[in-house]
Amino acid sequence: MASSSTTRGWLHKRGGQDNKKGWKRRWCVLHNRAFHYYKSDSDKDAAGTIYAEDIERVSASKDETTKDASYPFPFEVETPDRIYIFCAKAKEERDEWIKKISSVAVSRGQTLMRGKNPILQLYYVTIEIFAEKGIRVSGDVGSVVLGCLSQGVGPKQKKQDERGWFCDVHVTGASVLGLMANQGWTFVNAFHTKTTNAQGTALVPATMYVFSRPKQCQLKGQ
Questions:
Q1: pLDDT of residue 217
Q2: Which of 38, 93, 104, 130 sits between 20 and 30 A of 12, alpha carbons compared?
């Protein structure tokens, strides 16, 4: 089902915004922090995409209204806009999808698990540094961090949209790491990726940094 960086396979998806329609077979691909589902494994354009930073919860479905004897291993992917319901053909396959999707999810309040027991409630944010110029922050990092990142920058060089807060400025990874550490954030991971530019017209190379902190901590500058 998976390669070193991509997980793919057939799942069934419950149709409709409210999950009231029937099940449809979908080719699903988890790659580059996005979960895509296609009508066919030969399609180039996805029927839908769920971005990792929008995922709030991934879990086996426990709602009796979603259960169907023909689809016994459903799981839910919750975002701010809706709850998606997918179904695997076996419990082991379902659990593997849940594990893989959870591993890339960056949510506003994600619970880390040890076995079946929650061990710590964490708040995650991401900061993308564009290869050429620019930075995007996804998540609430506090006004102090945003102020430091945009120091000396005019209003026209900043933008807020559905993907986060963007600033047209040159920054280094070292400066971001130092700033976030000073504000109480823990560095989790960094990796090279491609992300949507500020205009939303193209994918551009960037380095994404992931940070976390205990959810109960109050953000400095708030």
A1: 41
A2: 104
